[in-house]
Design goal:
Layout (H helix, E strand, L loop, with lengths): L2 E5 L2 E4 L4 E8 L7 E7 L6 E6 L5 E3 L7 E6 L4 E6 L8 E9 L2 E4 L3 E6 L1
Parallel strand pairs: 2-11
Antiparallel strand pairs: 1-3, 3-8, 4-5, 4-9, 5-6, 7-8, 9-10, 9-11
């Protein structure tokens, strides 16, 4: 059974930093594209960043230069380092694992950025 468990969310002031982690189990982690998505209140879920098995990364324009995605295949974990946080970054952040037609999702972790 595939499980993705996010952690590291919380309340932070604008300008601060948080590091999210997503621990995966039940899948061949290294073969999956891992991603972070977020859903703000009243908005649709959107892509934040992805990292391929070859360590190619992609970022949404809104987070470029502030967020960094990384992965540790030995620990089956993907990270999202978030710096210079803004109130508009407030959302539930979800981890996802994708390979071909298969995709798996975590339950999310809440990030709240106060102004």
């Amino acid at each position: 059974q595939v499980q993705l468990v996010e952690s590291g969310g919380g309340l932070v002031q604008a300008g601060g930093s948080l590091r999210l982690s997503c621990a995966a189990s039940g899948l061949t982690f290294g073969s999956y594209v891992m991603g972070w998505y977020r859903q703000a209140p009243g908005k649709e879920r959107g892509l934040v960043a992805t990292i391929s098995s070859g360590l190619n990364t992609y970022y949404a324009d809104s987070v470029k230069g502030r967020f960094t995605i990384s992965r540790d295949n030995a620990k089956n974990t993907v990270y999202l380092q978030m710096n210079s946080l803004k109130p508009e970054d407030t959302a539930v952040y979800y981890c996802a694992a994708k390979r071909g037609a298969m995709d798996y999702w975590g339950k999310g972790t809440l990030v709240t950025v106060s102004s």
